[in-house]
């Protein structure tokens, strides 16, 4: 019996070790970005479309202060409360010493430079669809922003969700690089897909989630979801629930006014601020993408 128990224990240890190896944080090598030349001007558009400042600026920051990415905003969820970190170019407290490859691995794999899993409150489940060129350009632009030495605040995540090793299993289940809207798209719709599914990460708020926090796709894609902070919900973006015309959507993305002359509020106000800085063709592309919804199950 003692030998049997020892064998069972050893098999258990082997299984745990194998599981940890399979679900270890992934990272790509330098070849993924080889031959790419960074353009900070293009990177500014990526930064704006991705809404980096909306989450990583200091709480209540306005105007030019929005470009000081000191972090500190809190984002409650059923799994705990997550605090946006400092991603300014400060080399000690921010990400000033990150390489473009380290930024790629954070955005694409949810892996930190020191080889740890990031929580998916950082929307890498959407950013995984970003192209290498966009990440290289974004890295170049981030380096031009003001540095800030504010230390990043810790998350408030209770057991068992504070066990970061478990995130490897979450990634195996839910981290997928492919597009959600497949099929034969126009050039405008394809551009809208890049903005909505990747950089703009619309599904992070507007798609329902399963019990493990994975975003539902198929017929559930962008059909609305409860606010994880517990106040209200995010609306359904699929027709016929959203019956605005493409022109009305473009106007909303530009001015924040709905066809009923209501005005955007809450966190969506930051999204509209970002969208309004993009070329009108990009706002029209997002609208065209939304008009192609809903997806089949």
Automatic annotation (TrEMBL):
Q: Which residues form the Cytochrome c domain?
A: 38-146, 187-294
Q: Which PROSITE patterns match?
A: CYTC (PS51007)
Q: Which PANTHER family match?
A: ALCOHOL DEHYDROGENASE CYTOCHROME C SUBUNIT, BLL4482 PROTEIN-RELATED
Q: Which UniProt keywords apply?
A: Heme, Iron, Metal-binding
> Record's InterPro entries?
Cyt_c-like_dom, Cyt_c-like_dom_sf, Cytochrome_c-type_DH
Q: What is this protein called?
A: Diheme cytochrome c-type
Top-rank taxon, per record: Bacteria
Origin species: Sinisalibacter lacisalsi
